[in-house]
Design brief:
Strand content: under 5%
Number of helices: 10
Number of strands: 0
Order of helices and strands: HHHHHHHHHH
Largest sheet: none
Distance between the termini: 51 Å
Radius of gyration: 16 Å
Number of domains: 1
Length: 197
């Protein structure tokens, strides 16, 4: 695409992605710096470790929403801009400049990206995440299974460019979970609970 639109989409995507909702919400709620508890991550799973399920749910919703917003805004400039925004909002979430490039792991934001980019893939990802999380109580395992499935499903139902971007996002999510993978293998990964507080 000619013109500055892909670059504008990249900047908007990165800036939206770099908003650390988990950190902001936990500070506003009086829980201090979320990076000092649990895994040190700023995502919804670590927010859950504060004991506040509503706060974790809101973090997940907002992280998802910024992924959707980045793609929806960029789509008005064409498919290429939308794909650029999709990749950059994930990079912004994972590597926010404001936090020394130490952000979240991207699962919720990736789901948000998939909704306007390839909604059937989003449905597969959401259903698989829920199924694995409820069966095994590992958020990381659920994210990993969903990421792998997204890459495979996108290859069959999306156009080549979209499938390539989705595969790239899936790979980033898997790489960002390298510590979780080691803990899963060692049997020391933290579980999540769906019981009411």
């Amino acid at each position: 695409m000619a013109g500055p639109y892909p670059l504008v989409a990249a900047v908007i995507g990165y800036l939206l992605g770099s908003i650390p909702f988990g950190l902001l919400l936990t500070r506003l709620a009086g829980h201090g710096d979320i990076r000092r508890i649990g895994s040190g991550n700023v995502g919804a799973t670590n927010v859950l470790r504060t004991g506040s399920k509503p706060l974790a749910a809101l973090t997940l919703l907002l992280d998802l929403a910024k992924g959707t917003a980045a793609v929806v805004v960029a789509k008005r400039w064409g498919a290429e801009a939308a794909l650029v925004a999709a990749g950059c909002v994930i990079l912004g979430h994972m590597f926010p400049v404001w936090l020394g490039f130490r952000g979240g792991k991207g699962a919720a934001t990736a789901l948000g990206v998939l909704i306007p980019l390839a909604w059937p893939v989003a449905i597969v990802a959401a259903l698989l995440w829920l199924a694995v999380a409820f069966l095994f109580h590992y958020s990381s395992l659920a994210a990993l299974v969903a990421a792998v499935a997204c890459g495979v499903v996108a290859a069959f139902i999306a156009d080549k460019a979209t499938a390539f971007v989705i595969a790239g996002i899936a790979l980033l999510i898997i790489l960002r979970h390298h510590e979780n993978i080691r803990r899963l293998i060692a049997g020391t990964e933290s579980r999540i609970s769906f019981r009411k507080s």
